[in-house]
Sequence to fold (299 residues):
Amino acid sequence: MRKKGHNTQKRKDMAWGYGMILPLFLGLAVFYFYPVVKVIYDSFFNVGAFDKRTFAGLENYKNMIADAAMWKSLGNTFLYVALIVPFTVILALILAELLNQKMKGRDVFRVIYFIPTVTMTVAIAMMWRWIFNGDFGILNHIVGWFGGSSHYWLSEKPIALICVGVVSVWMGVGLNMIILLAGIQGISASYYEAAKIDGASPVRRFFSITVPLITPSLFFVLTTTLISTLQIFDVIYMMIAPKSTALVDTQSVVMYFFRNAFEYSKKGYASAIAVLLFVIIMAITALQMKLQRKWVNYD
Fold:
């Protein structure tokens, strides 16, 4: 009897457990799993306006391979990765170390650096668009004070991509700084005390103690920043005008996906682009997971 009652209670507990995770599972199924399957399915069709579709087989993928504009957008995306990821992670690490020190107004500085993270991307992009405005933007006024010449920052090809990268770094530093700061504060003070006794300088303590012991946090920050940069879209969409001469040289692969899906009504082709980006992100993430065993210290 006791065993039967125990089994009944166990089934009730399992039923309650599954019932508690059911809303989360339904949310994931509706908003994550179904869209992924739907995009992969649509990539094999020509999907036009009003969801009119005809089977295309591998035609969309063949067109994508021959599409120079798509590869240009993918190249721009990797340029954003090369520009944004290193600067974001390094600046976040430096700020986290500085704001971990005892200093006057430390909490105020932490809030100031974190504000861009909780501010709407649209508002930030519009603010920076006014700053970079070629006719009456404040940046040109500042450059003029130092004897420099004015520029149309968001229209000149090599400069526009850098401007978007600068804004993205400015937006991403705050959250990564908080994550790394939490990792630094989790390090035992005894390590630093022992290093001071041995005569280690602050720089030596930083590279020999702080950096190795926060590698799990660094790995998380590096992975999430890389993935978000590969998906960069909203800053470009808000800052670069649709008819800008720099659009081709600044649009990311997600931006090109958006234009094909909603401007050109080529949703099937856009789905193929999304599948390609999905595969790239999965491959890079898998490579990161493999390489992290060599440099991330979980002890």
User: Anything to note?
Assistant: The chain has a mean pLDDT of 89. The longest helix spans residues 2-42.
